[in-house]
Amino acid sequence: MGIPGPNAHGYVKTKNGAVDVTRLNPSIASAGGAMISSTSDLTTYMSALLNGRLLKPSSSPR
């Protein structure tokens, strides 16, 4: 199973050169890697968060 849609790739430098670790499962670090999002997803989230559509005003530290 691959990562859906277009995505950036992650690499790690080894003594034999760069290795693509994009599909490496980082769940060894608990919930790390449990979610995949696109830049569009993140833009939607940040816009909602910063424009008061995600949390009640009393929950926001502003």
Care to describe what's here?
A two-stranded antiparallel ribbon has the order 1-2. 19% of the residues lie in helices and 13% in strands. The protein is built from 1 helix and 2 strands. A hairpin with a 2-residue loop joins strand 1 and strand 2.
How far do the termini sit from each other?
Answer: 41 Å
Number of strands: 2
Structural class: alpha+beta
In N-to-C order, the SSE pattern is EEH
Q: Characterize the largest beta sheet: strand count, sense, and whether it forms a barrel.
A: 2 strands, antiparallel
Unreliable runs: none
Give average pLDDT, whole number. Answer: 80
Integer-rounded radius of gyration: 17 Å
Strands side by side in the biggest sheet? 1-2
Specify the number of helices: 1
What percent of residues adopt helix (DSSP H or I)? 10-25%
Shape: elongated
What proportion of the residues form beta strands (DSSP E)? 5-15%
